Amino acid sequence: MATTTSHHLVGTIQTSEINKMSAFHNRPGRISKSGLIHASTSQSSLVDPFQLQSTKIDNDSRKKSNEVALILIRHGESLWNEKNLFTGCVDVPLTEKGVEEAIEAGRRISNIPVDMIYTSALIRAQMTAMLAMTQHRRKKVPIVMHDESERAKAWSQIYSAETKKQSIPVIAAWQLNERMYGELQGLNKKETADRFGQEQVHEWRRSYDIPPPNGESLEMCAERAVAYFKEQIEPQLLNGKNVMISAHGNSLRSIIMYLDRLTSQEVISLELSTGIPMLYIFKEGKFIRRGSPVGPSEAGVYAYTRSLALYRQKLDETLP
Ligand SMILES: O=C(O)[C@H](O)COP(=O)(O)O
After folding, report:
1. GO:BP terms for this protein (predicted)?
2. Is pTM beyond 0.95 here?
3. What ipTM was predicted for this assembly?
């Protein structure tokens, strides 16, 4: 059982723990007829989301490592976070501060490989992902995958292999949406505590299996978010894809509960700050939390493994 205390998932790890990485086989995901990206473990039937051929930089880092990076980011501050309103599945945008947080998050992950991006269907998570990627040193272009209809898929095709190589598929999934806060959505958090009592509101906000009135409990949110992670995202990690997920406080709490194997008691004290990236290394079927990467300007203390350090070194050598 992972140990956890009531803290924000922020922190960095010395690069002293350098592991010897065995060879890594890059096996991309496959696009099904529905245009959804599925991945299976059988290598032969897999086609990369953009039929991407990994570039020299990406290939090299993967060849030397049996690990991939998983980055989790809670969206930057939203207009209703600023007003201290329960948001849930109401689709509100970022504040100016939230935009700045997203850009800063991008600076902190600018040297970490990203091959695929998953966001929720909500604009605050999608804005955060796109803004963060403006800072990435690899300068690949994140492109939202459209499969809401056959025409949407057909009209969003890219007809240049070279352009595809420089692209990152962005998959928006409602399953990663924030927990639905029911009749609390739009209410002020302080007024709600005054009306129902601090304890009752804390129970609605942080317990595992107690839903707000006509809303989702964290457990109900996990049933869709963690299921999606296991069915759609984990196969991509197994196939050698470095993945970034931009989502929400509670949908990410439910995923971290799975990654860190937290109990329903331990998850109560788990809080996520807006716009702070968290890095996991997925290696030999296990998730290793590596803390929150610091900006490239701060030397020495990184959540970097040998493989990630090699990727960063390739960027230093290859890019202006
Ligand atoms: O939905 C919301 O209001 C926020 O994203 C998270 O709210 P919480 O911190 O009360 O869970």
Report:
1. glycolytic process
2. no
3. 0.92
